[in-house]
Design a protein that fits this description.
With about 525 residues, the protein is of the alpha+beta class. It has 14 helices and 23 strands. Strands 7-8-9-1-10-21-11 form a 7-stranded mixed beta sheet, sandwiched between helices. Strand 17, helix 10 and strand 18 form a beta-alpha-beta unit. The radius of gyration is 23 Å and the shape is globular. The N terminus is likely disordered.
Length: about 525
């Protein structure tokens, strides 16, 4: 179905910016850079999406809606060829960069080339690596020629994927051989989204001002003060006092603590989000599937979910949550069964040694457990897991890292991407499409994707190929059901719970309607009146 931009929920054109309106937003993770194709986490993506645009975004009903594209390419409208190998985008003619230069097909092609540029430290090229070539027959037309059928392409190619990249200004950046260390990453002074860059005080805040020439209409809020607040107690305190008017991605405890705060509005949004434990299959000890399964039986997911999410999450099995049309409620994770975990470890040759820690071939079963510095929920879960796993003879050595280091690309020495861990607490926001091949394909091991578990499985590769070989929803759903079961059986990741995206904001903020993947898709329509 074709949907005009102005017909999408929350996409009205407010007209001129309200010059005296200012909103303070609490950002849970400090950005490392402001280049939209170098983003590594949802906090960076949020700031990027305030300043830059995609080709296609998503509304609150999970429907694709055009952004820089005039229409969403589909089989029905001919934007996707019958064989699925040619994708045609027609761009809107009224989008300009903040320096007045039109946004054209040259920007789209340049941005595609930069995602695929091996010299750029992008976290993933998933989907972009399925494109054989990009043609630009005129300023307003972009044609993708695919190497093979890839059903998620419209979400993956500058859309709402699990790596939601935005379009870059070619006329500003084409002079650089790579984008890793350029002034633009800290001062993106030319943008095309609802907001312009004003100032970035590292570790403190990013300040943005309304882009009066934004193609969807000038934002109703003139100034955004995006403050970096990694401490959850600070966030809740400032929300209560009104010093901060919008809190993003709150933890379960923070959300619960604001339950009776009459001066705030709370939102719990269905989202393709899960929290899990990465198990590094590339390390000799966890390359043993039996040990990974034993860890699953030794983990009380019900207690972890109850104690940390307070009813705002459900126990997970595979990676696809109820948000997805491919979610299969028949897939269940291993139940909590310490006796079965002990039996598996015994059978696998892990015998109890000094201090009741298991030993095999003279090596103690001690796992390096990494998580993000400042994350209260990760720290608390690590403590719980230490106790649960100690009860079956497994030692846990916790170590925290800054998020920028934890999630950095392999080229930058990222802990996950470089495999410098045994177990890691991991939260992931997927895209609109259920495609999860970037996390589980053998070919997606870093630096080629987000397979941070370094998991290799011929069966998984075959199922992913099956899921991506057709546009037929029923056939894809059958394949994803088997993929979910294989994740449970092989445990490359141990899914803990499916999380709702939790927010709190001042009641004077209107039209803040996150779509589940991101928050800024309709930022120009937000309104705020100081109390």
């Amino acid at each position: 179905m074709l949907v005009a931009v102005t017909a999408a929920a929350g996409c009205s054109r407010p007209g001129s910016a309200v010059s005296n309106a200012s909103l303070t937003v609490a950002l849970p993770i400090a950005p490392n850079n402001l280049n939209p194709i170098l983003s590594t986490d949802s906090s960076e993506a949020f700031v990027d999406d305030l300043m830059f645009a995609k080709l296609v975004t998503m509304d609150t009903h999970h429907a694709q809606v055009p952004d820089l594209a005039a229409t969403v390419p589909t089989l029905a409208n001919g934007g996707i060829s019958r064989d699925g190998l040619t994708i045609t985008y027609h761009l809107r003619h009224d989008a300009t960069w903040t320096d007045g230069v039109p946004v054209t097909s040259a920007d789209v092609k340049y941005s595609y080339e930069q995602v695929n540029n091996p010299s750029n430290n992008v976290i993933s090229r998933h989907g972009f690596d399925q494109i054989r070539s990009v043609d630009t027959p005129d300023k307003w037309t972009v044609v993708l020629h695919m190497k093979q059928l890839f059903p998620p392409i419209v979400d993956a190619f500058f859309g709402e994927s699990d790596e939601p990249y935005d379009i870059l200004p070619a006329h500003v950046l084409a002079k650089y051989s790579n984008l890793n260390n350029i002034p633009f990453n800290a001062e993106p002074t030319v943008t095309d989204g609802p907001y312009r860059f004003a100032r970035w005080v590292r570790g403190d805040r990013v300040e943005l001002t309304a882009n009066d020439q934004y193609f969807r209409g000038a934002p109703a809020i003139n100034h955004l003060d995006v403050k970096i607040m990694t401490d959850t107690n600070t966030v809740t305190a400032q929300l209560r006092t009104g010093e901060t008017q919008l809190g993003l991605e709150l933890t379960g405890p923070s959300y619960r603590n604001l339950d009776n705060e009459s001066r705030l509005t709370r939102l719990a949004i269905s989202a393709p989000v899960y929290d899990s434990l990465l198990l590094n299959c590339g390390r000799s000890v966890l390359s043993d599937r039996n040990l990974r399964v034993a860890l699953a039986y030794a983990t009380d997911r019900r207690t972890i979910t109850r104690d940390n999410e307070f009813g705002e999450a459900t126990i997970a099995a595979g990676d696809l949550s109820p948000f997805s049309w491919a979610y299969d409620q028949a897939v269940h994770a291993q139940p909590y069964d310490p006796a079965k975990a002990r039996a598996l470890l015994d059978a696998d040759g892990w015998k109890l040694g000094p201090g009741s820690i298991r030993v095999k071939d003279g090596k103690k079963l001690s796992l390096l457990f990494v998580y993000g510095t400042g994350s209260d929920i990760a720290r608390d879960i690590v403590v719980q897991l230490q106790q649960m796993w100690r009860a079956v003879g497994i030692e846990v050595q916790p170590k925290s890292f800054p998020y920028a280091q934890l999630y950095a690309p392999q080229q930058s020495g990222g802990i996950y991407a470089s495999g410098k861990y045994d177990v890691g607490f991991y939260a992931w926001v997927s895209g609109r499409d259920p495609d999860d091949s970037s996390q589980f394909l053998s070919g997606a091991i870093p630096p080629n994707g987000n397979n941070f578990s370094f998991y290799r499985s011929a069966r998984m590769d075959a199922l992913q190929h099956e899921a991506l070989s057709t546009f037929n929803v029923a056939a894809r759903k059958r394949a994803y059901a088997q993929i979910q079961q294989l994740i449970v059986d092989d445990v490359p990741q141990m899914m803990l719970f499916y999380r709702l995206m939790l927010y709190a904001h001042a009641p004077q903020l209107s039209n803040f309607t996150p779509n589940g993947v991101g928050e800024a898709w309709n930022a120009q329509a937000w309104t705020f009146t100081s109390p």
